[in-house]
């Protein structure tokens, strides 16, 4: 069984394939209203699907964009992907989601797949490591926009980012005001620039208050399990820890689980702060105090910026969003 073709419709309608093509593509053609309606009715009854690849080849546009992201089960990425998809759909584009597990080989494989599928552009959240993927996009002249995670020489590319350092500073100063001094900071993967930006914010405030101790910085991996594991290490090494600031919400969820199981009271014994403000952080109990990234707006603006570039307005603008400390129940 083959897919329904224009030839099938033409045979049933008693017209040429060219007439069917002109009617289905809304081209101006002198055909009677009854013939037009007959063609459209047969196409609907047969569930005819236009050949998107053929159309892309002829129009050089697929009305499709690709989204490259490191971990689709981390709500930060699924929420930003949702914002991109909503915006793309409103602008008459479809999306293809590519989950890379922060693996640069998988990233490259997906980039090549998207190019072979003739996507009109790519929204790229790097998993870290080398950026051969971007070289492949550039050499194929595929428009792309970076979002959330910047890279070296970011000023050369259009990007949408959060002011990570600023957000961390505000949260650390808040903890100090709460008389918490022994503040542990849990990073994301250390090689990521966003991890370095967040550590820089933490270090600057702790140094300013003469309480910086590099042994209070622990490397995390942005996962719940990673949050649980690093929290075991933290309380093993620091019996008198007063606060733990995790570089994302789901690591904080893992940490809270471990601490409560060990009998710690939150925030009385240990204050907890996260980063992202994913939707669920407002529903766990106690509700998570966290540094809110404007996730939806970042996704929306990155998509709008990409489609502007696709429409022929090249850009290397960088858009920065200010994060906001959401004070809730854990600090
Ligand atoms: O939760 C995933 C983290 O990595 C977020 O903080 C976001 O900034 C992403 O880069």
Automatic annotation (TrEMBL):
Domain HTH lacI-type residues, every copy: 4-59
Keywords: DNA-binding, Transcription, Transcription regulation
Domain of life (superkingdom): Bacteria
Pfam families: LacI (PF00356), Peripla_BP_1 (PF00532)
MF term (GO), any: DNA binding
InterPro entries documented for this protein: HTH_LacI, Lambda_DNA-bd_dom_sf, Peripla_BP/Lac1_sug-bd_dom, Peripla_BP_I
Gene3D superfamilies assigned: 3.40.50.2300, lambda repressor-like DNA-binding domains
Protein name: LacI family DNA-binding transcriptional regulator
């Amino acid at each position: 069984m083959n897919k329904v073709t224009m030839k099938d419709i033409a045979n049933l309608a008693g017209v040429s394939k060219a007439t069917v093509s002109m009617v289905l593509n809304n081209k101006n053609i002198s055909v009677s209203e009854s013939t037009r309606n007959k063609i459209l009715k047969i196409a609907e009854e047969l569930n005819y699907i236009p050949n998107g690849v053929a159309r892309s080849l002829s129009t050089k546009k697929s009305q499709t964009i690709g989204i490259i992201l490191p971990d689709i089960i981390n709500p930060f990425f699924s929420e930003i992907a949702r914002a991109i998809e909503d915006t793309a759909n409103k602008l008459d584009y479809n999306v293809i989601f590519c989950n890379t597990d922060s693996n640069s080989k998988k990233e490259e494989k997906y980039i090549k797949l998207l190019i072979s599928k003739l996507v009109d552009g790519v929204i790229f959240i790097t998993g870290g490591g080398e950026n051969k993927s971007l070289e492949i996009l550039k050499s194929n002249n595929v428009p792309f926009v970076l979002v959330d995670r910047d890279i070296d020489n970011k000023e050369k590319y259009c990007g949408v980012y959060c002011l990570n350092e600023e957000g961390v500073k505000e949260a650390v100063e808040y903890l100090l005001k709460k008389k918490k001094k022994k503040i542990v900071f849990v990073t994301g993967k250390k090689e990521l620039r966003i991890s370095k930006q967040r550590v820089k914010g933490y270090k600057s405030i702790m140094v300013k208050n003469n309480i910086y101790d590099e042994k209070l910085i622990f490397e995390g991996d942005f996962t719940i399990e990673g949050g649980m594991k690093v929290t075991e290490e933290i309380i093993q090494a620091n019996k008198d820890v007063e606060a733990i600031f995790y570089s994302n919400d789901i690591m904080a969820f893992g940490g809270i689980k471990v601490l409560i199981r060990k009998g710690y009271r939150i925030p009385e014994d240990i204050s907890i702060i996260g980063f992202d403000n994913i939707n669920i952080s407002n529903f766990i109990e106690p509700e998570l105090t966290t540094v809110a990234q404007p996730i939806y707006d970042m996704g929306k603006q990155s998509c709008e910026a990409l489609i502007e570039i696709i429409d022929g307005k090249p850009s290397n603008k960088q858009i920065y969003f200010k994060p906001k400390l959401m004070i809730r129940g854990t600090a």
